[in-house]
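User: My instructor asked us to take a sequence, write out its structure as tokens, and then describe one feature of it. I'm not sure where to start. Here is the sequence I was given:
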Amino acid sequence: MEKRHIANTITVRLIMWMLVLSLILSGVIYYWGARNIVRLHTELFHNKMLITYEYTRRILSDVYVSVTDNVSYLERSLDHPEGHQDIVKRIVSQGTRVHSCGIYYIENYYPQKGNQFHPFASRSDDNPDEIQIKTEDDDFDHLNAIWFRSTIESDSARWTEPFFENDDRNKAFTAYQAPVRDAAGKPVAVLRASISLDWLTNKLSQTDSKYNQTSLSVPNIFEPESKRYIIDHDGRFLTYSEEEQHIRGTFFSHLKPHGNHDIELLIERMETGKTSMNESDVRYTFDGEDCYLFFTPVKHTTWMMVTVVPCRAVDWAGLHYCFQITLLAILMMLVLILINYIYLKSRNS
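Assistant: Let's start with the prediction itself. The structure tokens for your sequence are:
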């Protein structure tokens, strides 16, 4: 009887120690697992941003290459302006990226044609496959336009700031423009190809829907809904979704520090063209919500691509996975305890 009492005491103590050990082990798994899952999710969104950046870079590169290649051809054909209309039409007809293209000459370059002469091609708003052509526009004075004068005076190519065509304030565009030089090397015209920022926003949304399928199966209620923007060097929004048309101000004006993180240092990094790392320990407040930020400069522009990921959604995803792992560990430990208890009970009976 004495021996059986001692055996039962040892069995109870052993079970209690195993329970305590299982709780400690579960806590460690839960804590470190949650941190690692959060890092994994933030790394996933960082990589998605780089994928979208590469897609955007290819779009802009196609426009850049199209303009650059045709500048050389245009310079060789300055003596034959009747063929310039075919150049702008060809640039617009190559794919769907370019919305419009025009050639703008310095004052009285073709005196017989007048200053209103500038071959121009654009896609129809009603039918994108239809290309509209015109060679004159009495209402458009490009000679006094800042973008034209700056390109001629600087003799350099660049992407423009956002602008509106035909006084339609609902459709914003940006353009890549390059100087066209005569035989003496003097800039005498500007070749300008524009893309619609609405079109670019839709393309980025399509890319998001394609690549936002995570390799980890998280319930929809935990799925992080990231926001992606392209901003100019001063923080102005170039792209945002239709649901965010209410956004006013700059990206930086919506940004606030979280904890001890230096917001000025972040803005300086973005303005100087730095690329973010997998910064899962750094949080900021964007539009009143704690978020992770990932950003990278867009090559050959003054733009920055930014991905904003709500911390809440990522944290809940991490907790969800760790809860599953911890629950499984506890169940396995309970099964071992039950087996051990049955074994010791059978030996003492």
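For the description part of your assignment, you could build on this observation: The CA atoms of residues 120 and 134 lie 5 Å apart. Try explaining in your own words what that tells you about the chain.
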